[in-house]
Amino acid sequence: MKKLITLAAAGVFALGISTAMAQEGSISATETITATKTLNVDLAYTDQATLDLTKTQTKTVTEDITVTKDIDIEAAQLVTPTNSAQAQTMKKDINELNNVTEEPVLPENSALPAVVTKQTATIDAGSFNGATGVVGVNQAPGSLNNQGNTAAVAYTQSTGTAILGSSASAEKLNDQNFVSADLSTRTDLITGSFTGVIGIIGVNQASGNINNQDNAASMAVGSTSVLAISEADLGLVNGGNTATYLATTRTDTLTGVFGTAAGIVGVNQSSGDMNNQANVASISILTSRAAF
Fold this sequence. Notes:
0% helix, 2 domains, 18 strands, three-stranded parallel beta sheet
């Protein structure tokens, strides 16, 4: 007697899940499984017989889950500060409702050529080479310029612990100003200078008009400190200004300067008009713990 049984199965599964979750809430999930199986049985007798069996199964699962979390946050003060150092610089420049006109001036003797406007700021070779400490330079052959170099340094040294704070800020506003320039020449030039300088260096040149320029540096230093915070802010606004130019030459040049310089160096040059320029640095230094 010979018997042969062959089993073949085919299935189709569909899964649909809809969930909603909150910090304290529930999760609902519905799972539907549909499976179709076909069983073929071939009995190898003299007389062949075939049996087809189809089975359909539907299963639904619903779950409700509630999640609750308890979070504990603990903070411990490991040390108590015994002293502090705070350094702060702040400078605000405003130029509003100004009017500057540059135009050729006719001499009384008509045989002579007209006198045109020439504005030049120059720092020659060898200037400030090897300078150390805090150095500030301002040049403004132009008109109505605001310039500044500010520096603040705070230092604390003790056997205890210190908190350090440093902040530097600069705000510049140019609003509703007017400049007209005809046949004028403006030049800012720094050449072969400030070689080997060390420290806080600020340089401003403005052969143009109605410019705001600033270099600001703030530094707080502590030898045994637990916390150092440093912040720098810069705000520059230009609005409602008007400028007209006719055959005007404007030049800003740096050549062979600040070689091997070390520290904080800020340079602004403006042969144009109504420009806001600033270099702002804030530094906090400690020897241990954390700095921000």
